[in-house]
Amino acid sequence: MGKGGKPDGGDGFEEASRDGCEQENMAAWLLGVNTLKIQPFKLPNLGPRDVLIRLKAVGICGSDVHHFKNMRCADFVVKEPMVIGHECAGFVEEVGSEVKHLVPGDRVAVEPGINCKRCELCKQGRYNLCPEMKFFGSPPTHGCLTNQVVHPGDLCFKLPNNVSLEEGAMCEPLSVGVHACRRANVGPETNVLVMGAGPIGLVTLLAARAFEAPRIVVADVNDHRLSVAKALGAHEIVKVSTNIEEVAEEIVKIKEAMGTRVDVSFDCAGFNKTMTTALSATGSGGKVCLVGMGQRELTLPLTSAAAREVDVIGIFRYKNTWPLCLELLRSSKVDVKPLITHRFGFSQKEVEKAFETSASGGNAIKVMFNL
User: Fold this and answer.
1) Do residues 237 and 360 both lie within one domain?
2) Per the database record, which ranges form the Enoyl reductase (ER) domain (predicted)?
């Protein structure tokens, strides 16, 4: 789990031991398709720059569900038992000798990826693209759906007094929206289209509002999620279908809803149809940012987009977003609480039910564990 945990020898499920003191750390292990089991998990020794965190809030992400249902997400394949999860916050229980900004008892949000800090991409500041990244719950790195983690202190951010642990865990998905808006240079003169009103589409909507986009239109196939988008501040919503033959008429509806040119489109679903719609709806000279990864490969009308100088950009995770996310939450410029629709405890039965709830869709947006 990043640095935060390691399996034992043999079957990997022995009781945890740290610094000669026996204690049991339980984690949700992904053992096979649709198979999760709470088992003991061993923590590594606390290094001088590490902190020990007792986790209290852990969210389920779409990538967790992909791993649960398919044992893979895009090109990340689960090949052996793995602890799942990467959205988390909790209490600091112990700090290493070189950690000065945190003390036991602090509440922290945890950035889940540990980069190497040595490669060219890290040195350029684009550490989210580090080829040696160890990211919670991304094979082969263990995740954070567990009682405790050991993690680098510089990736743990103290929560403002008015920000809850659940909101702290929501910094991870919110970071995706913030990074996307930064990549696309969203600002007060940028009219935004968001394709997809799932959790990532909704946090992208919230980020675009915080970045002062003057007009935001959200399109989706689901009436309930569109109603949530409207409640969260979308200026207009557009119901679309999954039929690619309907792209042309849906673009007309999107442009009517926008009432002006689309400067930036975010595809937060990642399918041929959503990306085709985004490319065609975006005005000449605008940008399309691919955020979602619904399909491993896309077939797109790039020639016509290129002829209008529509820039296509991608994002992968995020970089340097936690301080801004926490400030947006502290100042109430962003409210992620309405996104948390379901809560579960950390028992075998509730872990299974939580993943079933998240995978089934329906009215579930963000499913959160309270450990």
Assistant:
1) no
2) 32-369
